[in-house]
């Protein structure tokens, strides 16, 4: 291997810059040329990339987002589009690629590997919904942001004695929501992995009021329901003023916390070491604080049926 490329794909996440930096600095120290590909698979398709040097990745470890840019590029599913991408990779003499992103990006990495372009995947998403790893790059920063927001919501909902419903990102994974509920001291949590009975929430609010509680915070993962309609319903059924807040993209941005910087750096370094050992079609994870790698196909399969962290949920419920 002489020349590699690195790209970030899908929703950006804090710590992606640290991962790119890890790839670049390790690649250079191994005598490789490292190209940064702009805007994910789209940039690869449009042949937009730049040769990176040591200083290209200076002053980025502390920055959120990804300095290479990211995108969603659904057309990448088309074989003809990928054929053009493979031609670009060959023209540029890229021997291997490091793909930083979520499970969608992994599918692309697997397909490119199958077409003769060795790829290695790094889990970069705030959602923590990738299998084969305990944590994804960006998860802990997003969690801090969410908890800060919940703390603020607590101030105002306690002052007004209201129920506050807070919608958290995570796509179809409740990890961020459950963790936020534990650390944010929420009274109720709703996640995509478990059936939501609105009556349970009504009962809980009424029960808490009877117990003397003056306000409540409810954490709910996105895509479950319209939280503004839910707030109206809860207010109607409990007589308690209720407001909803969608945290939205605020959760994706911001300075990465130390853990995400370290995780991104470790994974970035490891990815180049694995590529030099001939690894292709695999992805990196962290399990019990140790870096591991797995075959991407097995991970993609498991992402669809990713085991729900039941113990985590039980802890949250104990504290309600
Ligand atoms: O995958 C990360 C994520 O932020 C999800 O939590 C969210 O559902 C999605 O991306 C939003 O994607 P987009 O940026 O394409 O709107």
Describe the model.
- The chain starts with a strand and ends with a helix.
- The chain has helices spanning 16-29, 40-45, 79-91, 103-114, 139-160, 175-184, 198-211, 227-238, 258-276, 296-304, 310-318; strands spanning 3-8, 33-37, 49-52, 96-101, 119-123, 163-168, 188-190, 216-221, 242-246, 282-287, 290-295.
- It is an alpha/beta fold and 320 residues long.
- Helix 1 packs parallel to helix 9 and helix 5 packs across helix 6 (175-184).
- The strands form two sheets. A seven-stranded mixed β-sheet has the order 3-2-1-4-5-10-11, with helices on both faces. The chain has a four-stranded parallel β-sheet with strand order 7-8-6-9, with helices on both faces.
- The chain has eleven helices and eleven strands.
- The structure holds 6-O-phosphono-beta-D-fructofuranose.
- Belongs to the phosphofructokinase type A (PFKA) family. ATP-dependent PFK group I subfamily. Prokaryotic clade 'B1' sub-subfamily.
- GO terms for molecular function: 6-phosphofructokinase activity; AMP binding; ATP binding; fructose-6-phosphate binding; identical protein binding; metal ion binding; monosaccharide binding.
- Mg(2+) binds at residue 103.
N→C terminal distance: 54 Å
What pattern of helices and strands is seen along the backbone?
EHEHEHEHEHEHEHEHEHEEHH
Structural class: alpha/beta
The overall average pLDDT, rounded, is 96
- Report the C-alpha radius of gyration, rounded: 21 Å
Main beta sheet strand tally, sense and closure = 7 strands, mixed
Model regions low in confidence, pLDDT < 50 over at least 5 residues:
none
Question: How many helices?
Answer: 11
Q: Widest sheet: strand order? A: 3-2-1-4-5-10-11
Number of strands: 11
Helix content: 40-55%
Shape: elongated
Q: What proportion strand?
A: 15-25%
Bound molecules: 6-O-phosphono-beta-D-fructofuranose
Function: Catalyzes the phosphorylation of D-fructose 6-phosphate to fructose 1,6-bisphosphate by ATP, the first committing step of glycolysis.
GO molecular function: 6-phosphofructokinase activity; AMP binding; ATP binding; fructose-6-phosphate binding; identical protein binding; metal ion binding; monosaccharide binding
Subcellular location: Cytoplasm
Catalytic activity: beta-D-fructose 6-phosphate + ATP = beta-D-fructose 1,6-bisphosphate + ADP + H(+)
């Amino acid at each position: 291997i002489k020349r590699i490329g690195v790209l970030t794909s899908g929703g950006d996440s804090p710590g992606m810059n640290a991962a790119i930096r890890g790839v670049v600095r390790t690649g250079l120290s191994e005598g490789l040329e490292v190209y940064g590909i702009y805007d994910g698979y789209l940039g690869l398709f449009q042949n937009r990339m730049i040769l990176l040097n040591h200083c290209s990745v200076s002053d980025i470890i502390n920055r959120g987002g990804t300095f290479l840019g990211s995108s969603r590029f659904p057309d990448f599913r088309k074989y003809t589009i990928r054929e053009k991408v493979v031609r670009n990779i060959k023209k540029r003499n890229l021997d291997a690629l490091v793909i930083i992103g979520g499970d969608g990006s992994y599918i692309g990495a697997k397909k490119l590997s199958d077409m003769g372009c060795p790829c290695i995947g790094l889990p970069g998403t705030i959602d923590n919904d990738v299998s084969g790893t305990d944590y994804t790059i960006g998860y802990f920063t997003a969690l801090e942001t969410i908890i800060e927001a919940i703390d603020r919501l607590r101030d105002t909902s306690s002052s007004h004695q209201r129920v506050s419903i807070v919608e958290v990102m995570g796509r179809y994974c409740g990890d961020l929501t459950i963790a936020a509920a534990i650390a944010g001291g929420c009274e109720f949590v709703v996640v995509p992995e478990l059936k939501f009975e609105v009556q349970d929430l009504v009962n809980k609010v009424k029960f808490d009021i009877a117990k003397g509680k003056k306000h409540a915070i409810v954490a709910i993962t996105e895509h479950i329901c319209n939280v503004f309609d839910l707030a109206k319903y809860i207010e109607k059924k409990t007589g308690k003023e209720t407001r909803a807040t969608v945290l939205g993209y605020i959760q994706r941005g911001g300075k990465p916390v130390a853990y995400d910087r370290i995780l991104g750096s470790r994974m970035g370094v490891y990815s180049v070491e694995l590529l030099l050992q001939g690894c292709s079609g695999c992805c990196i994870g962290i399990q019990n604080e140790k870096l591991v790698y797995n075959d991407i196909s097995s991970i993609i399969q498991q992402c669809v049926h990713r085991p729900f962290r039941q113990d985590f949920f039980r802890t949250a419920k104990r504290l309600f």
